[in-house]
Design brief:
By secondary structure, the protein is mainly α. 72% of the residues lie in helices and 0% in strands.
Amino acid sequence: MSAKLQVDKYFQALQRLVEQGAKINNDTVALEAGSGRGSIKKSRAAYSGLIAAIEHAARKQTEAKIEADPLPAIRQENSNLVRQLDSALERELALLTEVYSLREQLRQLHEQLAAKPVLIHSRRPYT
């Protein structure tokens, strides 16, 4: 069989696999076309366009699976929310530490004021 006919046979097999939604790689295309595993080789120049088409179809299939499966996006969102929560808790802890520090300073100032004697000056009227 000529290389052109064989490549056409492989392209038809690739199209059938795409329509079926089956896993796409060089071996599955070869098997679908009635050839053996490993018959689509990168070293054969006549197959370069076919191999590029198989890789493109496999990439599109993988992207479609990722879009159809929301779990990775949910996991990413969960990770982002956990990171934001940790950041918010760190800020809150820092602010609480500052509040306690300021309360202690205020308490010390009150003690110092209470310990100082208060001088009362009497005003004498001018005569």
